[in-house]
Amino acid sequence: MTEYSDLIAGYQRFRAEEYEHERERWTELGKGQSPKVMVIACSDSRVDPTQIFDSGPGEMFVVRNVANLVPPFEDGSGRHGVSAALEFAVTQLQVTDILVMGHGSCGGVAAALSQSFADQAPGEGGFIAHWVDILDAARTRIVAEHGTGPEAVKQLELEGIRTSIANLRTFPFVPNREAAGTLRLRGAHFSIADGVLLVMDEDGAFTPAA
Hints:
Order of helices and strands: HHHEHEHEHHHHHEEE
EC number: 4.2.1.1
Oligomer: single chain
CATH topology of the largest domain: Beta-carbonic Anhydrase, Chain A
Protein name: Carbonic anhydrase
Keywords: Lyase, Metal-binding, Zinc
Strand content: 15-25%
CATH class of the largest domain: Alpha Beta
Helix content: 40-55%
Number of strands: 6
Enzyme class: lyase
């Protein structure tokens, strides 16, 4: 497993090889960024959007959190990490696409389904429970139709993507750009076990990427 010393060794290789090879590109990136795509992905260590989409530095604006969730718009004084990143990407970087990417074997989604951290104090699972309860309404529908087994987990992973996209549209600056044709919301699901990427169509159905 990678340890901190491995990270430093990796940096040294990167600095001596890739950075020097792409020095001109890094110099340009030092002046600013202009990605066209924002990706909202899971924090899971197995699911790196830049690796999955074979992209380089400066090409995607990425936000990662437990279960790749977007909370609904709230006009309050709390700390809104996802909301701030979304606001910056849309209003300042003016990205043209936002992709919510879920994945197979998602621990956050499994926790939402099992409610294993419910009623726990912060530091003992309470933060996780309050975050994944964004999926409570979707969970109710999935449990009613699929129970709580492996198929339910997969279906809740997909429903979580749909939920986050619906929540994106609660932010005032998103739907007006959608209506103007300057912003598109997209969904995808990556299977860790077999490498298959499912993409969501306009009706919310998922099919393998061409």
